[in-house]
Amino acid sequence: MMEWHSIDNYYIGDGFNSREESTDDSWHWALQNRAFIGMDFKSESKRHVWLISFELEPPPNGKERSIEIYLNHTWIDNINAPSKHQMRFVGMPNTFYELEFISKGKLTQVPGDTRSFAFMLKNFKLERVDENLEVSNHRRLVQKKHIEILEKYINLCKENNLTYYAFYGTLLGAVRHQGFIPWDDDIDVVMPRKDFNKFVQLMDEAKEDDYYFNSMESNHNCFYGGYGKFGDKRTTFITKRDANQKSEHGITIDIFPLDGFEVKSKKRHNQLKRLCFLQELAFAKIYHRRKNLEQIFSSIKWLQMKFWCMLYSKNKIIKKLTQVFEENQYSSHVTILARYLKDDNRKFYKKDFFSNPVELQFENLKINVPGNFDACLRVDYGKAYLLYPDEGILRKSHCGIACVGIPYREFEEHVLYHPIQIKNVIIIGDLEIIKKYLEKDKSRRDMGFVLDLKDKSSGAIINGHMIIGINEVQQYYNKNYTILICTEAFEPIVEAMQKNHISNYYIYIDDCMW
Asked: Could you report the per-residue pLDDT of 317-355, keeping only the tens digit for each?
């Protein structure tokens, strides 16, 4: 059994046979073939992003050697000395992390020195580099609703003997967090094509009052590239692209079919070329305005696709797409074709990665994951998938208006997609979003009041609007005022409007969501 020795809040395991202090007051460790550093987070109550940094000095014999680094026995890197190295990970409360170093190559005895070591590990530091990663109450409510939808989906799969696997960020969350990645806001699963088709048919025939399935085969007027969304009708999730589409707009989980993939370059390129054309054709057929598809279409390409749309019905496009999806079902490799991606961005997986599915914990559920989930995660996120990337780790990954307790159809007419002239307005919400609204509002003719929900700026003026406190609302408000709600957490305000029979209100969420 390994012995651990506490040194300055770190635990040093067997393999570090000495520790010495250099002239610049930085600590060094002598690294043999195998060495360990442990980090204990039992004193932490919240999870944080931590940055590990250290330097490696070459062995005294001057020979360059390589070293492999593991976190909790998962291989994350292979580097040569001398090297300055940094990595990030999230420290979980009540968790012990073990960083393991394995030196490669034959150790050489240094003349005149009784120590045999491969490297000197210098300036090892562990420092917090973020605010804590606890999610907002609103996001946690949305995550819990996703879990509820996922549980319903899993039960349907079990009842109908259908195969599924958690994938993408959901798989990564199950492996790394046993639940959601802290800033994630969706659920991704994949199904073999035959099981996906059975699920489409099942939902077409189902008499589900509270759940629905949006797919290209269904009558819902939305398109996601060919995959489907299983959602709750009692909720709201509306994206800018789909805002004006006649469809269900609830919180959903994404369901991707796994299709055969042609590995040979020329055949693969031809397959993907036909696929992208048909996906673009479907987008142009279903969405009548280019504005929300600017990432896909230039002005010229939009005109070209609208011309091709005149030659094909929606059903014909879907039929041709299905043929392309299913033409390589006997391939030894699979991918997710039912996404709009360019050739270089495609990732493919050996079909046997998905053999013998296993169960992992995800929040309060047990979910199926690919038997070789490690190989899948390495394809998608690299060999260091247990660590966190340096860039954008706290950003929102998806954009849309989310509401757990109110169906979209109940307030759809109140959603505002861009500023409009409003007489006698009281703007309620987060000052940051309110400022963005007022910057874009060009009318400026009818001034009103701003209610900062955080109640920190009462008495100030913003773009000609006076900021009032919560206690002053009654003093200024009457039925001639229109209420403009500018906050991501708008649900309790809308519920209060409905309870008090107030119908003259709008909801506006700025580009941070749209």
From this structure: 999 999 999 988 889 999 999 988 776 678 999 999 999
Dump pLDDT digits (tens) for 125-136: 888 888 777 788
Tens digits of per-residue pLDDT, 361-393? Answer: 999 999 999 999 999 999 999 888 888 876 555
Helix/strand/coil for 358: strand
Q: HSE-up of 247 (CA within 13 Å, CB side)?
A: 28
CA dist 262 and 418 (Å) reads 44
Convert the pLDDT of each residue in 42-85 to its tens digit. Answer: 888 888 888 888 888 877 666 667 888 999 888 888 888 788 88
- Helix (H, G, I), strand (E, B), or coil: what is residue 55? strand
The pairing of beta strand 461-462 with beta strand 465-468: antiparallel
Measured distance CA(95)–CA(77) in Å, rounded: 22
- Phi/psi at 119 (5° precision): -140, 165
What Cα–Cα distance (Å) separates residue 297 from each residue in 33, 302, 352, 374, 387? 55, 5, 37, 36, 35
Q: Is the dihedral of CA 90, 94, 99, 100 positive or negative?
A: negative
- 188-192/165-166 β-pairing: antiparallel
pTM of the model: 0.85
Average pLDDT over residues 445-459: 73
Half-sphere exposure of residue 333: CA atoms within 13 angstroms, side-chain side? 13
User: In a 3-state reduction of DSSP, which class is residue 229?
Assistant: strand
Displacement of CA 352 from its chain's centroid (Å): 26
Q: How many other β-carbons are positioned within 10 Å of the β-carbon of residue 242?
A: 22
3-state helix, strand, coil in the chain (%, to 5): 25, 30, 45
**Residue 55 · residue 84 · CB < 8 Å:** yes
The whole-angstrom separation of Cα 181 and Cα 171 is: 10
In this predicted structure, the answer to whether residue 176 has a pLDDT above a threshold of 50 is yes
Separation between Cα atoms, residue 417 and residue 244, nearest integer Å: 10
In whole angstroms, what is the distance from residue 344 CA to residue 215 CA?
A: 25
Cβ(497)–Cβ(382) below 8 Å:
no
